[in-house]
Here is the input.
Amino acid sequence: MRKPLRIISSMKARLSRHLGVICLLLLALNFILPSPSHALTVENITFAESTTIGGKPVPLHNAALLRYLKFIKAYVAALYLPEGGKAEDVLSDVPKRLEISYLVSIKGPDFDKGAAPVLERNQSPAELAKLQRRIDRINAAYKDVRSGDRYSLTYLPGRGTELALNGTPLIVIEGADFAAAYFGIWLGREPIDEKLKRDLLKGR
Here is the structure.
């Protein structure tokens, strides 16, 4: 009786060792292989596969790098749009989110300097006059950023456009007209950077 018991005990020990090795391999593969809902990484900056707007999931459309003067990497932007939405309807009254992760430091007052010329190109004087007070409000909310900081602009129909810094809301600006104009800085007829616009809108 003892010999069969020793054999069974030996078999159990070998099985236990094999199971331990398999578990370690599976654990290693879990770190190596991406999950089906893997996030998107650009310039070592990672964006989640989806975000939540108004309690509903909104998937990541694409992310892309903006270069300033062609050789300075300024920031990476990510665009979130509703499932099935058309890229050409991005400025219509639909939920959307633009996340901008900075690779350089920028002073709060300097955000207006970059946005103002683009807003002027895309809006008539009458349209701009109607928006100006709201533009001034969002400009006043901007704070200094350093490399690694992230601003987000999130538009929810009926609520407005929320500006947040590193996940902390700073202000909400009302109006679908404001959202269309402000998101138009990156995605409008004459955006801040044509290549960035194309890359964000083409999807993945």
In short: The chain has two domains: 1-33, 40-201. Residues 115 and 135 are 10 Å apart (CA to CA). Residues 2-32 form the longest helix (31 residues). The chain has five helices and nine strands.
